[in-house]
Protein 1
Amino acid sequence: MPPFPTATTASATSHLALLLVLSSSSIFFLYKSLRLRRERSSAPARAPTATPTLLYASATGTSKALASRLSARLTAEAGVPVRATDAAAFEPDDLPSVPLLLLVLPTHDAGAPPPAAAFLARWLEESAADFRAGALLLSGLRFAIFGVGSRAYGETFNAAAKSFSRWLRALGAVEVVPLGEGDVDGGDIEVVFEEWSGRVLRVVKGEEVSDAVNGESDGLDVLEGEESDDDDDEDVVDGEVDMEDLAGKAPGRKQNGKVENGLRNGEENGARDMVTPIIRTSLEKQGYKIIGSHSGVKICRWTKSQLRGRGGCYKHSFYGIESHRCMEATPSLACANKCVFCWRHHTNPVGKSWKWKMDDPLEIVNAAIDQHTKMVKQMKGVPGVKPEKLEEGLSPRHCALSLVGEPIMYPEINTLVDELHRRHISTFLVTNAQFPEKIKTLKPITQLYVSVDAATKESLKAVDRPLFSDFWERFLDSLKSLHEKDQRTVYRLTLVKGWNAEEIDAYAKLLNLGQPDFIEIKGVTYCGSSATSKLTMENVPWHSDVKEFSEVLASKSGDVYEVACEHAHSCCVLLAKVDKFKINGKWHTWIDYDRFHELVTSGKPFKSQDYMAMTPSWAVYGAEEGGFDPDQSRFKKERRHGAAALKR
């Protein structure tokens, strides 16, 4: 008679039966889980200073900067050398052997993880959904995640970080610090990150031990039974650790459970600075001069070009501005879109309404002119700069309110425009077609642009990536509001091959909504590789492509518009209304700026035809100059490519 089966033989029998129905890959997962459980049960207790693995996946540089700051803090205060590593370089199969995982992670398009973390995300998601992996695969892993996002995106706010937390917990990992949720546009990311990293520091030092977090925490509340951390914060306040680094200077620390002065960094009467230290650092690296808490100015390459007598921008060819006397500025660095072709690589804030501190418009204008003239003065001594042009450049006569962001969001935009006009500075304002009511209440300006980045709802969502759920209705209403303006109005089209350049019939249908005076059609400018943009040089049209598109669009307008001007260097073409601006066969797209200021000063109603001027022959479409002013000197850089470059 066979012996009575023991618990051990019964267990072995059941395991054998299970193995008979599992595939080879299933056997691997089961073996791996059982082996890890056995190894961990016999392993000695982990020292509190076990070296963590710190990963980041950065889209605009913010997450990398925060991870670097955390690395420095853990190394200095915990004595544990921690290196911040790009998630793209991390092998997910190594996760089971990681004692503590720290992850700083932004959210990309539609709540997805950024490209650098895409492979890791796919590995975790697939493993969490695979019954063969089960809840034992990462049962020895502890982790903490800090999400970098914007509440302006609603339900997708820090969605990627939340997904990572959910997948890791599904695989048995223990979340030792609640998910940190930083809001780059809300202005609180510095405070939230400091609190979160302080908790991480205590975990690494073995001073704080917590049970698994259930994933439903909505902030960084103190865990049950946790002692006061006043002493810890006091040490930091005393300056033992310098936290001013890549991500900007840390804000005031908490003391006795309160933020110093009762306000967070940059807050005033409950309103925060639009430009956080991280955003300021990023924009200043790109050459911006930040004005106050929400404005900026930057010298344009065409300003430098015309100071040297080497040609002006397309606005010089189309409208007669003096590029060396043009100031590029904005009273609002924030925007309601995240366009794929944004040349600022999405380093500016986003928002759907004004929620920040507001600076005085007079102070903004004064500071903008001051900063602009300082940058012009720095051109003194640069080879080729003409003294007379430099002298003129110190007195700006044009302001392009199109630097970055959405200028029309600024609540005092009308007062700011009035102040510019009072100084005889013309105004060219660009709006991104998401604030129709602001367009209606805008005072007369020299020229008002609306960006028409796509012609269908689907493509507009893909190209502009707007914050508003009713973005299409706002877009159409903005075009209709443009029609109500008496001064010069413009549709601004940026052609992106493969995204919107094929929608010419849909564009033609939009012409009747706004009935603009002009239509600018420009090829997208490639600004280099970026994790926030999928564009490549293949998306950039040739000037011949832009010309062809412009000619077809003009023909589809029913002779309402004709191609009037071009600027080949900028890959840009201008369509103009025939009945308004073509007089006796001659185009009048230029502006009589002195006359415009007279009309504004009079306070009486006036129309776009009241301050137009004749377009010079060299700027007219088809001229051999291609829109290049013959009074300027053409300068072409010698470019070496391929074999020639290698021989150099």
Protein 2
Amino acid sequence: GNIRNTEKLSYDKQHQYEIMVTAFDCGQKHATEDVLVRVNVKPVCKPGWQDWDKRIEYKPGSGSIPLFPSIHLETCDGPVSSIHTTIELQTNYIGKGCDRETYSEKSLQKLCGASSGAIDLLPSPSTTTNWTAGLVMDNNDIIFKFDGKQGAKIPDGIVPKNLTDQFTITLWMKHGPSPGLRAEKETILCNSDKTEMNRHHYALYVHNCRLVFLLRKDFDQADTFRPAEFHWKLDQICDKEWHYYIVNVEFPVVTLYMDGTTYEPYLVTNDWPIHPSHIAMQLTVGACWQGGEVTKPRFAQYFHGSLASLTIRPGKIESQKVISCLQACKEGLDINSLESLGQGIKYHFNPSQSVLVMEGDDIENINQALRKVSYINSRQFPTAGVRRLKVSSKVQCFGEDVCINIPDIDAYVMVFQANEPKITITGMDHFARPAAQFESERGVILLPDIRIVSTVTKMEHPVDLKEHDRADKPVIVEEMLHNLDFCDVLVMGAELDPEQECLELDHVELQGKHLDATNSTAGYSIYGVDSMFNYEQVLRQIRYRNWDTAATFDRKFRVKCSELNGRYMSNEFNLEVNILHSSNSNFMDHVNHMIVQPQFLQSVHQPEGSVSAVHNSVVPSVATIVIIICVSILIFVITLGVYRIRTAHQHSSADHDGSKDNEMDWDDSALTITVNPMEKYEKPHQIEEESEEEDIEDEEEDTTSAESDESEEEEEEEEEEEVIVQKGDKQNATRQAQLEWD
């Protein structure tokens, strides 16, 4: 007999079926034994990659992690002759096409060893670089977006008028197809007449997905045609992706580098030189200034797209090595242990290492090679988010072009957010020095003991802890090392007067470091990607000089540092400097020993808790000295007043004592107790007067009082009544005199 199924079997629903078979004869008597029949359902073979995870997690600082550590290819026993696999890391939506360092262009050029003197035309808005304040900006990556309605004027003096025959223009650009059939020019950079005329001296613009550089030389002895317009036609100009462009000018030769690859112009047109004139020029970004041939000067030829890191370097061009460094990605695909790939595997990376192509004849070798493909991000603080992965494969069989179809792999790498560092600046925040030291040739060092320390706070997540117990997890505070990209020493209050004061730094201190510095009346700026230690060494050498200190008593400064172009900022460290003139120079000896360096709380892992002592520096300021002097004068005046009052009171008491000399023998407190009760009104006043007299009497009066007590004891019983009468008369006389004195 036959066993048939009535519906389709599915391996996913049930792998095996068991059927009991029993035989019956014509008398319906069944067989003595039944037979068990097992039906195994085989899975339908689907060619494709097996055992891979859709989500790959990446923690900053992990180095290189494998993407598919257990992957293998199922071919369903097909006769495979070769396999071609492409792994693509899609990062065009991250920053400028991939995760690159977000330092300023000047800092990156210094890091890559580029020639100095680059001028940033699209800097972050600040008090000194305010021409970009009105532009739409993405703060994280310093990207400026132009919507065809905006332009920026570069102030006079930022870029020299004469760029010489050698100069370099660098920029990041993201641009799409131009709107309209006959699109207008879209200006990236333009130097044109400010008024009267509309001559363009040099410009970089996009026109119909072509990049054009215009350079009109000034008239000289040779009045001849010269190369003036250089055209490049590239698909990348309008693909809405980020690309890095460098225009190297060695007149009459102009070379374009895009993403590190060299491109020669496909068209060069000549033009007459420009005749010299007295008309001033206006340099603009995002549009071109039309100063003539219109009723009112205005912007024209607006740019549509995004720009970043636009710089111009007069007098020098860049080398291929520097150009490759400037546009290098910090993330990409990698292969662990290239030696173990085997001879039968061919592979190829694109320049940015975002695409890897592998080809081989043996399936197992391809499996092993793909397991070694990894993702790496060398940034200490990478951009968090998703990186998409796509793996596409083509399989060829013997005698056939394509025998089986391999579905693509769509996965992604999740890059976690790095722990944010806390940058802390510490040091002596207040000191005083004699005026002579500020007036000396070397001046006074401002930050002799400055320290820059960075810490990160981490929270442990033990696996065995429950959710409600995680509130009591130990907190780890660790010190970490990373680079800085600028530190500013700012002058607080009025700017420095260049006629009498300045900040100084010997440039020999910058040698051997990736650092540069600029000085102005607003402060001193040190920039470049370098270690915190090198920044400390340079900051400790900055000096303040003041060769006319007569009208200056103090100066205040503020120090702040940055990592990743302001993404992580330090605390604002304030410093007050007092200038001691000759009148209070002696005070110097008393205050300098009080200067104590503020303590920095060193971060350690102490789950049980820790106690840290904090020592604050206390340094008298000029205001404190003035307060002390005022209080001293006030105390002196009060003391003098009290002394004069006591002296006057003693004169009053002396007059009163003269009237008492004749009755000293009768001056006894015991007698006042037994006097006539009719004198209640007078006795309280008498007691007060006698108590006041006792407070101010000297030793002589005490002796006289003692003798008076003895004589009064001998004659008390005999002359009691007489004493009362005489004492009453004496009191009236004394009260009258006392009232007149008061």
Protein 3
Amino acid sequence: MAPPNNRKLLIVGAGASGLPSLRHALLYGVDVVCFELTNQVGGLWNYKPQETDLSSVMKTTVINTSKEMTAYSDFPPEGTMANFMHNTEMYRYLQNYSDHYELDKHIKFNHKVNSIDRNEDYDKTGKWKVYYTDDKGVTHDTVFDGVLLCSGHHTTPNWPTKFRGQDDFKGRIIHSHSYKDHRGYEDKTVVVVGIGNSGGDVAVELSRIAKQVYLVTRRGTWVFNRIFDYGKPIDMVMNRKFLSDLRSIVPAWLSNTVVEAKLNMRFDHKAYGLKPAHRVFGAHPTVNDELPNRIACGTVRIKPNIANFTEYGIVFQDGSKIDHVDEVVMSTGFSFEFGLVEKGELIKVNNNHVSLYQYMFPTDLSDHNSLAVIGLVQPFGSIMPLSEMQARVYMEQFTGNNVVPSKREMIDNVHDKLEKMARRYVKSNRHTIQVDYVDYIEELAKLIGAQLDMRQLWKEDPWLAYKVYFGPRVPYIYRLNGPHKWKEARNAILSVDERVLMATNDHSQVEPDYSVLYIAGILLVALIILYILF
């Protein structure tokens, strides 16, 4: 724990991004308080059965990233926790984290932030005036030296432009934001629009009790299973430093071809009506274990985009139609905005595009960098370790270590990321905050000196070096070096496989990780073919 720091920091939100931000603020000795709108921690992982403007998981939601890749860097999950936790177990992990580090002492529950404005002396001090309503309904204003916005980006439903005839449709139309569970959908004909993770989950769940489910997709998608070969969690296989380094030197078409071939071995995406025109790394993937089975059973049928609604039905762009539709669930994603900060005029968002250095610091406020956004990224992998690393970057900057570059460099970094996204991804509002998990967390780690000197590590601790380079890029790796090292980091890294196995069979012994050799073998063969051809 660092010596006390008299600078005052406000954290908005006690969810999966706010909690690690609070934890690291305390490590730095900052005078910190967190305002949470509800009466509990957990954010969207705190399931809310009633209709509300607040974000919430569905009753049956299971995380699509594994527990070890989702954990915070100094709080490994219990071995008996499922590798892919149900939302109630995920919530328990967050509550345990808060309890373990006594974060509740610094959280003011039922406190609503109404607005955040630059203080009168902002140009000189970088301070912010925050107007809020406390748990008794009394309004206050307080000046803070810094503000962290940790309220997430799944709060504002994104509704597509209305289809022709939609206003005359007699059935019910909701957004997946409002979908809680299957009750009320029994024996009905349901159309789910959108094949992202929410759309796939809703379609699969309802296919068990509805009369028929139709899943609408404009362009198709590549579907990943949570489980890879040998039963390994897919994100633990894909997010490895050696693979990241390999992808940086291998042509993109080769990486795409190898992964697409592997996905098609599970099921032929073209035969199932899902094969998109874009390559697998050209869009955010859909993670769903059951969708191909439900399609094979006929309880989910794939349809192209909607052409128009009729009074009771829907006509699709291929000319097919459903004469009677009871329910439509728009699983069309979310928009984000920063209306709290000077009524949205300070951090402007246009079609989910926003100018934030490292998706954190507004480039228009680069004179002080005292306000930042945490968790506004969309990786293939978990957001939580990235949010934690963002918080560490902010705390370094906030406590005077000046890790953020000049305004010109910040703007160049934003433009560079936008250009790379535009070249790689399908044009879509959901592809504005995409990051590659390993590359991005490495980039942040370098800002605060938490990256590893691999040459030195190979000399001093070759077994650990092997684990961190060829094994999954678990968050504990970034507490070996840098500010606030964690003395248990090495042990946490070396015991990952044990905790993964314990979740499914606590009587087995850990076997060698063959998935590394498997992937390396596939890529080696691909490289040999490439060498022969060119």
Protein 4
Amino acid sequence: MSAAMDTESTYSGYSHYSGHSKKAHRQGRDRHKSPRSKDGSRSEKSVTIQTPPAEPLLGNDASRAEEGQDDNWGETTTAITGTSEHSISQEDIARISKDLEDSVGLDCRRYLGLTVAAVLGLLVFLTPIAFILLPQILWRDDLEPCGTVCEGLFISVAFKLIILLIGTWALFFRQPKADIPRVFVFRALLLVLIFLFVFSYWLFYGVRILDSKDTNYQGIVQYAVSLVDALLFIHYLAIVLLELRQLQPMFAVKVVRSTDGESRYYSLGHLSIQRAALVVLENYYRDFTVYNPALLTASKSRAVKHMAGLKVYNVDGNNASGQSRAMIAAAARRRDSSHNELYYEEADHERRVKKRRARLVVAVEEAFTHIKRLQAEEQQKAPGEMMDPREAAQAIFPSMARALQKYLRTTRQQQYHSMESILQHLSFCITNNMTPKAFLERYLNPGPTLQYDRDRWFSKQWTLVSEEAVTSGLQDGIVFVLKCLDFSLVVNVKKIPFIKLSEEFIDPKSHKFVLRLQSETSV
């Protein structure tokens, strides 16, 4: 089922409030039937197959289906039924298979990295314990007795290992937020450093202690304590490299959405390009308004209408170039008034939005007033007969459904608000005793992407495009692009300039002055 059908079926639960006739329904179905060309080929509309690791953003098919509709599409259509023909090319199949292979490779690499880190961490924590226990197991009778100092070192090793375990859990054992295309360089360096460090300790232990069966047990325990101390220092180094190094802002990045030009600025520290891309995406879902392709259809239809009006005729085939230029010039002069059309279209759209917004505000206020009356009446009833917030929301929703549906269609937001989500939000507002203005805030002002249903906006797969290696650090002038199915984010990196502050000393005495008054006055 196409996204356009899903968009209109969202309100099918309460379409009886719209009061449309079967004739308008049949016309809407005929208008959306996919045409065929004269040669029998299928239409250009294609279907997108969603793979498990890539969930496309909602609205790409809906925007294409709405291009052929007029400005009153929300008034004449409540649901779309029928079938549409789709085609898929060999290039699309090859691209989908490539995406599947890439997703399998990412999963294998992620689990391989987690396995290596877990095995290495287990080896690190068992090594000091093995250093202490192996002499007791292999040559216990030949060991020198462990005195008070040696027994105190046992307590030191135990507490240091507990501290190291908690620190490692807090720093490394986190749920991954994303899959990055390349290895995190600093994390890989730390793993290599820990492996070399533990390997060198084992090599020294095997040559100098196991082979010679050293009897100085206190020295062996001290050797294990030195290993734990060194591991604690490596953990401190990991905190500096992985957490503290990136805190100081060094770069200012400008993020621009390619479709509508919405932009934001962020400050970043010393990060690689791939980690900077993750920070940008986290901030994008929180700060950018939700991407609505339906808002772009008006400008597209206007441009198509303008280009369709340019007609060039070839007369006699002799003076075609001169006449063509004359016709183009004449057509351009006739269309110099296109800015007036744009002005009146936008003014008419703003008028309709304000009108339907006023109707919606009045309908919601009346519904909430009715809720207050119901609450006052239910306070006099028995506790078992009181209405819960869900039932109250379902009781008052029909009174505002038509006004809300028209407003959402006029502002092209209907694909982001289902009837179930509106009822949940309404019951939430009733439960927390919120005002009508608080209820309408979600619908009157487009919110950030995270505000809407996860299935309607979330896209798991992003493609990072960069001329530089994604593991290299940010530099002044670097530009990289984050692409998803419907749009892309263009990121431009600028280094924060060096600021030089100077101090100017002001003498406190410079603010003092003397007022001299003459005793003689003129007569």
